[in-house]
Design goal:
With 230 residues, this protein is α/β, with parallel strands linked by helices. It contains 10 helices and 9 strands. A 6-stranded parallel beta sheet has the order 5-4-3-2-1-9, sandwiched between helices. Strand 4, helix 5 and strand 5 form a beta-alpha-beta unit. The chain is globular and about 45 Å long.
């Protein structure tokens, strides 16, 4: 039987993209997340800095179960083990941090959660990997993003790297070609002006374009792999 942690990793490997919401506007949280989900995102992350983050995580999990929706929900900006405990209690299936804390990674391992700590240098990534991280978040994104990742993966091809900042609808194909395990879309999905004006239809349309592009890239890579191994 597949463990919850393995199932979440499989979901990341399948969809390759997550919608990451960070906002101070409580009234925009669920409408924005719902727009991303309607647009095709099946992995969503609510940061702990978002108002009533834990309630929104719990509500999303409950709704997904009620509606039979294949949705994976995680918590972002998890800085301490106490944060991790609260996120897990709310139903989060993966925990993301802007930094690497071995104690948070250990907590995830103990409770069958996927851990995604923040890293920037090859040394930080390797240390996180050795500590048990499932995926390493590339944060902040370097100015030469995809080129940096391509160079990094030369000697470290076994790392699952998830870039977040610097990822957009326009460059997502380049990031994937450079070897990204998945991509996190933050302000490039939840565009600040759309959030401020509550233009959730624009967020939904953008989400659909992004997820359509991600699926096409994934399908092409699968075809290329079959040709290579034939």
């Amino acid at each position: 039987m597949t463990s919850p942690r393995a199932a979440v990793l499989d979901t990341f490997a399948q969809h390759r993209c997550s919608a990451i919401l960070r906002t101070e506007d409580e009234s925009a949280v669920r409408p924005a997340l719902d727009a991303a989900i309607r647009g095709g995102f099946r992995i969503v992350e609510v940061t702990m800095t978002t108002p009533n983050c834990l309630k929104h995580i719990a509500d999303l999990c409950a709704q997904a179960k009620h509606d039979g929706l294949d949705l994976t929900v995680g918590a972002g900006t998890v800085l301490t083990v106490d944060d991790a405990k609260q996120a897990r209690a709310a139903g989060a299936q993966f925990l993301v941090s802007p930094v690497t804390d071995p104690q948070v990674i250990t907590f995830c391992r103990q409770h069958d959660l996927v851990s995604i700590p923040g890293t920037f240098t090859p040394t930080e990534m390797m240390n996180a990997h050795k500590a048990g991280a499932d995926i390493v978040k590339l944060f902040p994104g370097p100015s030469n993003g995809p080129a940096f990742l391509r160079t990094l993966r030369g000697p470290l091809p076994f790392l699952r790297v998830l870039p977040t900042s610097g990822v957009s609808e326009e460059n997502c194909e380049e990031w994937l070609s450079a070897g990204a395990f998945g991509l996190g879309f933050v302000a490039s999905l939840f565009e600040p002006m759309d959030m401020a004006k509550h233009r959730f239809d624009a967020i939904e349309a953008r989400a659909k374009r992004i997820t359509d592009k991600m699926r096409k890239v994934g399908a092409q890579r699968a075809r290329d792999s079959q040709v290579t191994t034939a």
